[in-house]
Write a structure and sequence with these properties.
Blueprint: H1 8-19, H2 23-45, H3 47-56, H4 66-78, H5 84-130, H6 133-139, H7 141-182, H8 184-204, H9 208-231, H10 233-238, H11 242-292, H12 297-343, E1 359-368, E2 373-383, E3 387-391, H13 398-405, E4 413-418, E5 421-422, H14 428-434, E6 435-438, H15 449-454, H16 461-470, H17 474-477, H18 497-510, E7 515-519, H19 527-538, E8 545-549, E9 561-566, E10 569-574, H20 576-581, H21 585-599
Helix pairs in contact: 1-12, 2-5, 2-7, 3-12, 5-7, 5-12, 7-8, 7-9, 7-12, 8-11, 9-11, 9-12, 11-12, 16-18
The structure holds adenosine-5'-triphosphate.
Domain ABC transmembrane type-1: 57-326
GO molecular function: ABC-type transporter activity; ATP binding; ATP hydrolysis activity; ATPase-coupled lipid transmembrane transporter activity
Domain ABC transporter: 360-592
Length: 600
């Protein structure tokens, strides 16, 4: 993903999105935090009479004013004796509830954090699977992987911190309220001093989101480099790219570590120096309170207790805000990624696909991947049940033709019609079940041969064997240690190129799709095997339409119709014999391949 500024509005929208994800849970956290705050306040107010009792040797009276007075009148109303023991008992009960609610907040916060992370991952992966191939062409799969797995984790973490901020913030409010009730002027003076310090730290240190954004970018680059090294490990070794990749990875790792340390350093700097400043301010307050204010011993005790509880929380609150800002870019980027993906979804809904495909027509189709036209006013016709060959020089647009047929992309101009209807109007999933495509370099899943053949569908043993027979998978089946149950390894490393292609062909045959597209699907087989596979496919059943792209022209010599595609257009059409009789590209390519065969 591109490195982008994080506008303030986008940050707030991201936070709002989290808050509205599970409104009940969010409200539960807010309510429980408020309860914890209130209980903390009540707990503190117990200190008044406790200190009072300590001073008077246990005697208490309801004549006390202010907070203590209110507390004592509650005791009187409930009918509890006003003794030190009962006061401590009351304090114990309040504290138990206070910490039980703190536990509840943390538990609910974990539920929200992990639940949101799960929801983000789920949504991101679902959208990633539904995104158009063009999106992957632009963004690359490594960015998608990073967003789905890593960014979402950081995004979840930021929520936990926000809850922590909220809970600690409310406790600070409780202490400040008590202090304000006891000594309003002193508290206000302290608030001005601490507020000034907060502003100073905020503007004196690089903003958290700026450093955090750099961490997020470095993280993305790390993923890209790591993936390039591991996925392309063979070429990395063969072309001596190890040291280049390693130094690139290390440079990114350094950036990642340096920026991560910067976030943490700033966070702890805020925490430590703020704590120092707060402690110094506190001593000042204590001095003033003792020296100039006529506070009672109990009021002074509670005031100081509140201040001492407030001070570390305030400094960690500032550090938490900084950490939140540092991690917010991950949340914003994840939301941005999800929105981008949602905009780039394939249009799936559409009309039912006819049971029989009688005819497919490309009518003046033009297409460009980016700005460069790859297909230019191309027209061709495929009759149901025909075997059609597509040949031509490399880069002419053959694979693009069949990618459009499988609706991996849509035409920019013109139309592709099946039975007279544009294929774009058909239900996408049903259309892809109609067209089975075998690519030159198919993906083999790191699973059993059986899974790779059935693609997870339930298929009868007999159909499995038949498809394996037709695609000549049976030729190497006995060499696999566990037959159909052999695990084929990461991207089928345990198979040769030709074996992988045969597995992919059998997978396509098992779908029973009426249109079979072979895009250089047997190019890795030797000529004899390729011919055997093709003969088996051609004689499958009369109803199946086969479109085969081939460089080796002998593969399509039996085709009912052959199209030569050059520079994005059809340059000639005919059967093998009619085309070889002409003085065109096909005849030229054929003559060249024949002489190569004779020479070898
Ligand atoms: N995903 C893509 N994004 C951008 N350009 C692409 C993409 N796929 C193919 N192209 C470009 O489109 C042009 C036609 O490619 P295409 O694969 O359709 O040709 P082809 O005739 O099948 O070639 P080959 O015989 O070498 O497989 C080429 O110039 C290629 O670089």
């Amino acid at each position: 993903m591109a490195e982008l500024e994080l506008p303030r509005g986008e940050r707030y929208r991201s936070l709002r999105r989290v808050a509205l994800h599970r409104p009940l849970l969010t409200s539960g956290i807010v309510a429980t935090s408020l309860v914890a705050m209130a209980l903390e306040g009540i707990g503190l107010s117990f200190l008044f009479p406790v200190i009072e009792a300590a001073q008077t040797g246990g005697a208490l009276s309801t004549a006390e004013g202010g907070i203590a007075g209110r507390l004592l009148s509650v005791y009187a109303a409930v009918g509890l004796p006003l003794t030190l023991e009962f006061l401590l008992l009351g304090l114990g009960c309040v504290m138990t509830c206070r910490y039980a609610s703190a536990f509840a907040v943390k538990w609910l916060a974990a539920k929200l954090t992990k639940g949101y992370e799960r929801a983000l991952k789920d949504r991101a992966y679902e959208l990633a699977l539904g995104a158009s191939v063009a999106y992957y062409d632009e963004e690359g799969s490594d960015d998608v992987l990073n967003a789905v797995l890593t960014q979402t984790r950081y995004a979840g973490r930021v929520i936990g911190r926000i809850v922590q901020f909220f809970q600690q913030g409310l406790l600070c409010v409780a202490y400040a309220a008590i202090a304000l009730a006891i000594a309003p002027l002193l508290t206000m003076a302290a608030a001005v001093a601490l507020g000034g310090l907060t502003v100073l730290f905020r503007y004196g240190i690089e903003p958290g989101y700026a450093v955090g954004d750099r961490v997020a970018t470095a993280n993305e680059q790390l993923q890209e480099t790591a993936q390039a090294g591991t996925q392309g490990v063979r070429d990395v070794k063969l072309f001596g790219m190890r040291s280049d990749l390693l130094s690139e990875f290390r440079a990114t790792l350094d950036r990642y570590a340096t920026t991560s340390v910067a976030v943490r350093r700033n966070e702890v700097a805020i925490q430590s120096f703020y704590q120092l400043a707060v402690s110094l301010a506190l001593f000042g307050l204590v001095y003033v309170a003792i020296r100039y204010r006529a506070l009672s011993v109990s009021a002074l005790g509670v005031f100081l207790f509140a201040m001492f509880r407030l001070a570390p929380r305030l400094s960690s609150l500032n550090a938490t805000v900084y950490a939140i800002e540092g991690e917010l870019p991950h949340l914003v980027r994840t939301h941005r990624f999800i929105d981008q993906l949602a905009d780039r979804q394939e249009e799936t809904a559409g009309a039912a696909v006819p049971e029989r495909i009688d005819e497919i027509r490309f009518e003046n189709v033009s297409f460009a991947y980016d700005d460069e036209r790859v297909l230019d006013d191309l027209s061709m016709e495929i009759e149901g049940g025909e075997f059609v060959g597509v040949v031509g020089p490399s880069g002419g647009g053959k694979s693009t033709v069949v990618s459009l047929l499988a609706r991996l992309y849509g035409p920019d101009d013109g139309a592709i019609l099946a039975n007279g209807e544009s294929i774009q109007t058909y239900d996408l999933r049903a259309w892809r079940e109609t067209v089975a495509m075998v690519r030159q370099d198919p993906h083999i899943f790191d699973d059993t041969l059986r899974y790779n053949l059935t693609a997870g569908r339930s298929v009868s043993e007999r159909d499995l064997r038949d498809a394996a027979e037709t695609a000549l998978v049976t030729e190497f089946l006995d060499d696999l240690p566990r037959g159909f149950d052999t695990v084929l390894g990461d991207d089928g490393v345990k198979l040769s190129g030709g074996q992988r292609q045969r597995v992919a062909l059998a997978r396509a045959l098992l779908t029973d799709a009426p249109v079979l597209v072979l895009d250089e699907a047997t190019s890795d087989l030797d000529t004899a095997l390729e011919r055997r596979v093709h003969r088996a496919v051609e004689t499958l059943d009369g109803d199946r339409t086969v479109v085969a792209i081939a460089h080796r022209l002998s593969t399509v010599a039996n085709a009912d119709r052959i199209y030569t595609v050059e520079d994005g257009r059809v340059s000639e059409t005919g059967t093998h014999s009619s085309l070889t009789a002409r003085d065109g590209t096909y005849a030229e390519l054929y003559a060249m391949q024949r002489s190569e065969r004779v020479e070898s």
